[in-house]
Structures are given as C-alpha cells and as structure tokens.
Design brief:
It is a single chain. The chain contains 16 helices and five strands. By secondary structure, the chain is mainly α. It folds into two domains: 232 residues, 3-Layer(aba) Sandwich (Rossmann fold), CATH 3.40.50; 91 residues, Tyrosyl-Transfer RNA Synthetase (Orthogonal Bundle), CATH 1.10.240.10. The strands form two sheets. A three-stranded parallel β-sheet has the order 1-2-3. A two-stranded parallel sheet has the order 4-5. It binds adenosine-5'-triphosphate and magnesium ion (MG). Adenosine-5'-triphosphate binds next to helix 1.
C-alpha cells in the first residue's frame, strides 16, 4: 500500500502547549508510528512573521524550542521530516500564484482569520501578509502533495480555503494539485482546548497555556489556580460542569481507568454527577487533574531534556529536513509552472519556436 502524505505545522511563536498536544501532536505521533504515512512537519516562521514582523527575535528563538517540543512528544526525525518554512522558498512563489485565485471578500469571510483579527484588534490596519496567511498555508499543504492534515478545530476554515484553491487551480490549469483532507481528533473535547484562564482557546499568543516543557511545580500551580465555577463556593454547593475549565481538561485528558485509580469514582461521568449535586470540592478535582497531567508530561519533559543537551544535533535535524522539503517543494513548483505554461525556458515546444536555427 502506498503511504499517504501527511503535512502539519506550527507557528514558532513560543513553546508548544497541551492544547497542541491534544489537538494535533498526539495524533501526529500515532499516525507517524502506524507506518501508513509519510509525515512532513513545517515550522511556519514565515506565517509567524505575519503578525510578529516587529519581533523576529521571538520567532528565531522559538524555532529550536518548537523542534525540541516535537522531539519530546515522540516525533521521530527518522520517519518524520521537520523543516523550516523560510528555507523552503518555492513556498513563497507558489503563494504568489495562488493569491490570484482568491478574492479579498473571501479572505475577509474566513471565520478563523476574522476571529484572530478581532482578537488582535487589527481592523483595517491588518498586515496584508496576515490576511493572506490562509493562501500561504495552501502553498505549504499542496507543495508536499499532502493527502491528510491533522489539525485543531480552529484550522478547519483554513484547510477549506486550501481545498478551494486546489479546485480552482486544477479547473483552470488542469489536474496538478492534490486535494487534502483535514483530520480532527475523534474526542471532541480535544478539538479546541480552553485556556487556563477559561478563555475559549489555549494559545501561545494569549499566555494562557500549560507548556509541554513546564516543570512539575509550574504545572501544579497552574492547575490549582484554574478557573472553575464561580458560584461553587462551598463544597456542598451544587457545581456547574459546563464551562468549568477543570472538567474541560478532564474531558480531554482523563480516561475512566485513571479516574478510578485516582479517586473513589468509577468514571468521569460519576465524578461529574457528584460535582453537579454538591459535595465535591474544587481542590479535589484539581488534584486529580494535576496528577493526570503530571503523568502525561513527565516522560515528555524528560525526553525533551535529553535533546536539550545537544542543540547542535537538533539544528542538524532541522537543516537536513529543510533541505529534503526544499527538494519536494521545488518539484511541485516545476509542475505548477508547467501546468500554467510559464516554464518558458525549459519548455522545448516554446524554446524551439523562438530558436534562431
Ligand atoms: P498562536 O497564538 O501563535 O497562533 P497557537 O497556540 O494558536 O499559536 P498554532 O501554532 O497557531 O498555535 O497552532 C498549531 C496547531 O495546533 C494547529 O493545528 C492548531 O489547530 C492546533 N491548536 C492550537 N491551539 C489549540 C488548542 N487550544 N486546542 C486544540 N488544538 C490547538
Ligand atoms: Mg494559532
């Protein structure tokens, strides 16, 4: 069986967090280890610069950090190719051609871009590069002929934009680009993990994260300070599970087996029922969540620490991966230019027409 091509990426705007883990990284590692995929992972520095043009230092520092986070969760550079977007320059040229296949109105309608613009309070002062990042993302996905793209829910409208570009390109210039498919985690609670402040999304830019590299004390402190139900003041008060950050995290991370090992409840549902009726305190639910997160993050942190000792090796992984990805993207760019008929100097039918002899 031919392996399917998998493409994913992350913006090097800070360290990766447990929202990334549950929404995308965990699935990437499983798919990588299944042997059924050829994975490419892009550290999207060009995209990160679209809203951080004045802070390239942040992006520069995050390249190695994001790669260390990958290695910590079990991305294996022998199987997965990890590359840096700016080094793979055919992506920029592909973006230029795709820009002509999308209207301004369509970009402004994109719910993800809309929400992010609102969050960043851009209005009409949005950097053009930021507004068009879904187009550059289409270049990333199509350059590697990706069949599948595992992402968090917020990225679905961006992948939809890629599919429209693929359709338009293939219709106008003939079948050239591969149609990708977004893959979401099966557990709905993992699609968009809320922030530790209760904000709708845990996000590097919002500073409401539990990072994969956080030490045990930091994790505990963040969990113990989490937002729960403001009306659940006394243990015996009935509590609300919906909108309660601790339960949102338990939905995403806890198994019933873990709950029964760590408490007198046989399942998460049983624990929720007790909380709703009253009699279950916030400290207790936080202690259970803390234990579950500590169990998950300890091996990730320890594996990461091994790689942290040899950053030169990490640089080598990135350099080799970027070079391999440059080769693949260059081939796609050649195909694209041939389909568009702008391969003037390598197209013999064209050069022959204008040769002097
Ligand atoms: P930034 O704030 O710089 O945009 P981010 O935290 O949103 O950073 P990205 O690098 O934009 O992270 O996202 C990388 C991948 O992780 C995407 O597939 C995205 O859908 C997924 N992801 C990000 N945050 C979450 C979250 N809170 N829950 C689930 N998936 C997430
Ligand atoms: Mg984001």
């Amino acid at each position: 069986m031919d392996k399917k091509i998998l493409l994913t990426g992350d913006r090097p705007t800070g360290n990766l967090h447990i929202g990334h883990y549950i929404g995308s990284l965990h699935q990437r590692v499983q798919m990588q280890n299944s042997g059924n995929y050829e994975p490419y992972i892009l550290i999207a520095d060009v995209q990160a610069l679209t809203d951080n043009a004045d802070n390239p230092e942040k992006i520069r520092a995050s390249i190695i950090e994001v790669c260390l986070d990958y290695l910590g969760v079990g991305i294996d550079p022998q199987i997965s190719t990890i590359g840096v977007q700016s080094h793979i320059y055919p992506l920029t040229e592909l973006t230029t051609y795709y820009l002509n296949l999308v209207t301004l109105a369509r970009l402004q309608r994109n719910p993800t871009v809309k929400a992010e613009m609102k969050q960043k309070k851009y209005g009409a002062n949005v950097p053009v590069g930021f507004l068009t990042y879904p187009i550059s993302q289409a270049a990333d996905i199509t350059a590697f002929n990706a069949d599948v793209v595992p992402v968090g829910e917020d990225q679905l409208p961006v992948i939809e934009q890629t599919c429209e570009i693929v359709n338009a390109f293939n219709r106008i210039y003939g079948q050239t680009l591969t149609m990708p498919k977004a893959i979401l985690e099966t557990n709905k609670a993992c699609h968009r993990l809320v922030g530790i402040d209760g904000n709708a999304k845990m996000s590097k830019s919002l500073g409401n994260t539990i990072n994969l590299k956080d030490d045990a004390d930091t994790i505990k402190q963040k969990v113990m300070n989490m937002y729960t139900d403001p009306n659940h003041i006394h243990i015996e008060d009935p509590g609300q599970v919906e909108g309660n950050t601790v339960f949102a995290y338990l939905d995403a991370f806890a198994t019933d087996d873990q709950i029964s090992q760590l408490s007198e409840y046989s399942s998460l549902n049983e624990m929720k029922e007790h909380y709703k009726h009253g009699g279950l305190g916030d400290v207790k639910i936080k202690k259970i969540l803390n234990e579950i997160l500590q169990q998950l993050l300890k091996p990730i942190r320890e594996k990461r620490q091994v790689f942290e000792k040899d950053r030169a090796h990490v640089m080598q992984i990135l350099k080799q991966g970027s070079e391999k990805m440059l080769e693949v993207a260059s081939k796609t760019l050649d195909r694209v230019k041939t389909s568009m008929g702008i391969n003037y100097f390598t197209d013999k039918t064209f050069t022959d027409k204008y040769s002097t002899n």
